Amino acid sequence: MRNCPKWTMHDLVTHLTTVLSSTVAAITDRPTEPAPPTDWADALGRWDGQRLAVREALRLPADTPVRSPFPGGGLLTVGRWARRLAHETAIHRLDAESALPEPPATRYADVFAVDGIDEFLTFFVPRRAAHRDGVVRIEAGDRAWTVVLRPGETPAVESSGAADLTVTGSPDDVYRALWGRPHAARMVGHVALLEPLAAP
User: What per-residue string of b and e applies to 77-91 under the rule 16 or more CB within 10 Å gives b?
Assistant: First the structure.
């Protein structure tokens, strides 16, 4: 697929199945399902089963606390899991569409893309250590974020700061840029500073 040249559609389906399984396990406090099967039909069946299971799990009240499978733990709720899955699915939808001979011109609404940028920066970024030193300024629509990177430290999202790299553009393009997907966002400065923010 164009967006992820090292992945096949089977890889994408099994990845999403694992994400869904981990979500169900975290919310229900049960063990995760075994690794998805390698057979294509079985892999699709497992994905469909986990899709239905996660829909049931997310019926719990949004403020229900759940255990965190991420390093460092921290408070998670059913509502935060729902937000996480919304953006995980949205980005991988673009990946799946990129495998089509003529991908559709999918664009996400500003309010959704801005929420995705915020979720990425406040959820994913603080859960990894930086290996570069600098400040990244991200501007999309009427929102802006400043991420401070210090080697060996957890990246911090601040309210302001002189930027070594500025990323600007429509919310949809900046959203894609942070996830390493094709985009039309504008980058001015040391582009290598995006590496510590790279999506997993």
Answer: bbebbbbbbebbebb
- The type of residue at 175 is Y
pLDDT digits (tens, 9 = 90+) for 13-71: 999 999 999 999 989 888 887 888 889 999 999 999 999 999 999 999 999 998 877 76
Is residue 87 within 8 Å of residue 120, measured between CB atoms? yes
Distances (CA, A) of 120 to 53, 125, 127: 25, 7, 10
CB 141 within 8 A of CB 169: no
Q: For strand 134-140 and strand 156-158, is the pairing parallel, antiparallel, or unpaired?
A: unpaired
Q: What is the pLDDT of residues 110-132, one digit of tens each?
A: 999 999 999 999 888 887 777 88
The predicted model scores a pTM of: 0.91
Chain Cα centroid distance, residue 103: 21
Residue identified by tokens 């500025």 is: 166
Nearest to 125 by CA among 149, 107, 144: 149
Q: Which residues of 148-179 are buried (b: 16+ CB within 10 A; e: fewer)?
A: bbbeeeebeeeeeeebbbbbbbbbbbbbbbbb
**Do 94 and 40 touch, CB atoms closer than 8 A?**
no
